[in-house]
Design goal:
By secondary structure, the protein is an alpha+beta fold. It has 2 domains: 2-91; 109-329, BirA Bifunctional Protein, domain 2 (2-Layer Sandwich), CATH 3.30.930. Helix content is 42%, strand content 20%. A 7-stranded mixed sheet has the order 1-5-6-10-9-8-7, with helices on both faces. Strands 2-4-3 form a 3-stranded antiparallel sheet. The longest helix has 41 residues, at 51-91. The chain starts with a helix and ends with a helix. Bound molecules: 3,4-dihydroxyphenylalanine. Residues 174, 176, 216, 254, 257, 276-279, 300-302 line the site of 3,4-dihydroxyphenylalanine.
Length: 332
Amino acid sequence: MIEDIRRCTDEARERVAGAQTVDSVRAVESDALGKRGTLSGFKKRLGTLSEAERREVGRELNDAMAAVRAAVEARRAELEAGERRARLRGERVDLTEVRPGRDAGHLHLVTQVIEELEDVFVGLGFTVAEGPEVEDDWHNFTALNFGEHHPAREMQDTFFVGLGSPREVVMRTHTSPVQIRVMEQQAPPIYSVMPGRVYRNEATDATHLAVFHQLECLVVDRGITFGHLAGTIDMFTKAFFGAGFSSRLRPSYFPFTEPSAEFDIQRPDGSWLELGGSGMVHPNVLRNCGIDPEEWSGFAFGFGLDRLAATRHGVGDLRELASTDIRFLEQF
Ligand code: DAH
């Protein structure tokens, strides 16, 4: 029996030495030492031996099992260390590495979208305007014709800043207040786009962010009609997305436009993507900015940019747009 034990032991040690993965070490361990293992099998047969033989064979068997166990542990530790080294090597970020042509990194996906949209609109003769992210109630709501009790003023939507009188200072909830700032600062004709960051007091998930981006468009001139609005949206749709795309308007409601419409774009495969809101600038809004609605009319539209940036790059979770993981960022 001792012969057999030695043969099994040698065989197990040989297999352990040759194992290339932690899993195959585990397989040898179970084949030799497991409940139905070859060495465990000898234990059951000890009972058939005489007392003296049993002592000798028993000692041999204990030593053999200890030796195999030790070999298994040693090989497992070796392989685990190797796997860990390989994983660390794979995850390593070499901050000193110089890769000609790539070292400048790239602009954020949303910034790329903003720059492309600006290019499209500047090409159509528009200017680019910006406004503050911390706004007052007048620009974010009141001047935009939000009634005093409009639900969008409620706590669940708006982050209030602890400045001024209660609820007077807000993180802007949309880019529409920049329309007001532009009209306050500049006489018509106005052809402007206003990109920027906006804030909503919302739970974030894969399709909603509390901090996101919009682009606003405002035109005020003599004789501006709903046709100009529809035409501009369709033109920008084709310029930004491609000739195979088109747009449609659906009746809607916003306090600062009348009539109001939501707009969707149609992809070449026929599917629709809801993009944003639009409408003819409400006469009250023009008046609030000192512009005579009898002389001037205008249209406006606004839409979110984060979903655009994400869809375009197949990013399924909007929260990834805030990722700082270089392995994620390097894909774009
Ligand atoms: N500000 C609106 C929002 O955040 C979007 C919007 C609707 C902008 C209509 C506009 C507009 O300029 O005319 O939901």
